[in-house]
Amino acid sequence: AAGDKGGWPSFMAKEVTEQPDAVANTIRGRIVDGVVDVPELTAFGDEALSAIRRVIIIGCGTAAYAGLVAKYAIENWAGVPVEVELSHEFRYRDPVISDDTLIVSISQSGETMDTLMAVKYAREAGARTLSICNTQGATIPRESDAAIYTHAGPEVAVASTKAFVAQITALYLFGLHLARVRGSLSADQIGEQLAELEAIPAKLSSVLGVGESIRTLAHWMSDTRSVLFLGRHVGYPVAMEGALKLKELAYIHAEGFAAGELKHGPIALIEPGQPVFVIVPSPRHSALLHAKVVSNIQEIRARGARVIAIAEEGDVAVLPFADEVIRIPLAAPLFEPILAVVPLQLFAMELSTAKGLDVDQPRNLAKSVTVE
Ligand code: G6P
């Protein structure tokens, strides 16, 4: 039952393993006979959805990173410009909004005050509002024109895990629904992406198998003072999410960087022994991006970094330069984040445990921040 650890040492340990179901349950009822149809979106009408000129995604913390991942997918599929902004920054900068702007808010709890105030502000300015929320009847979905609920089930641990993968899933369904209504992709093209999405729960189950090797890694690293995360394209938000998890749970200074930005500053941080997680894009989809990230790995390795590569099965190009390789199953590029985040969640959880900290209730944090 909710509120019960069900034999797991922590709620987080339980919730991490519930991620395959979180995705499967969020898909259920929204793909019918191979066609994406998110019933909640009928509230807008197909005409209004076709007329949208701009999407602005808002959220805080992990929810904002789910939005950043989805930006790549929604722009690619629906051909609509997507911006992602932290709710508290959006609200206070006089954003340009009109009735062809769709505001998509993301909030697990549906009660985050910063996000609620941003949604209210956007509505008053004439935008249409869609809420992606995990909590039935929460304030943000009630204050929005429409809501797509993620069906991850109650999330108790302060650090968000299963809600994150469910948010990406809901946003992907939204993006593919939008692509269908707008005619930006053919039925076959949409079908291919839906098949990728439907294959994710089984791949998530398999990636959870890295738990044991992550535990060993975390034990070695329990006195680490700083960890960097590098990613490119959709791997970039994953890098930031991995860093956030480590700050939240293990109280370790951590930063996520876009791999291409390395040479513009962060490489100065690399000194012998510095641990760096690198999310390596698949070489099957973009040999160019893959080669660029492998060359980043060589650059930091040459300066003494300890490289932990998250790479797809069969990617041997990383082997000569990585101290550790953590494998994720093969997936289409836009779907890799849902898999690549899992080892990073587990790493933060195991490091927190290795340091004797409270995984579910990190200091100074609240599950839902209901003040501005
Ligand atoms: C708090 C939590 C984070 C969470 C953020 C957004 O800061 O500690 O884990 O990502 O709020 O919460 P929401 O409920 O709006 O998704």
TrEMBL record:
**Compartments in which it is found:** Cytoplasm
Q: Which residues form the SIS domain?
A: 45-184, 217-362
Could you list this entry's UniProt keywords, alphabetically sorted.
Answer: Aminotransferase, Cytoplasm, Glutamine amidotransferase, Repeat, Transferase
Calcium recorded as keyword:
no
| One of the record's GO molecular function terms | glutamine-fructose-6-phosphate transaminase (isomerizing) activity
- Provide the GO biological process annotations: carbohydrate metabolic process; fructose 6-phosphate metabolic process; protein N-linked glycosylation; UDP-N-acetylglucosamine metabolic process
* Enzyme class (EC, first level): transferase
List the EC numbers from the record. Answer: 2.6.1.16
Please, which domain of life does this record's source organism belong to? Bacteria
For this protein, what reaction is catalysed?
D-fructose 6-phosphate + L-glutamine = D-glucosamine 6-phosphate + L-glutamate
Keyword field contains rRNA-binding: no
Record-level GO cellular component terms: cytosol
Give the multimer and partner information: Homodimer.
Q: What is this protein called?
A: Glutamine--fructose-6-phosphate aminotransferase [isomerizing]
Q: What is the lineage of its organism?
A: Bacteria, Bacillati, Actinomycetota, Actinomycetes, Micrococcales
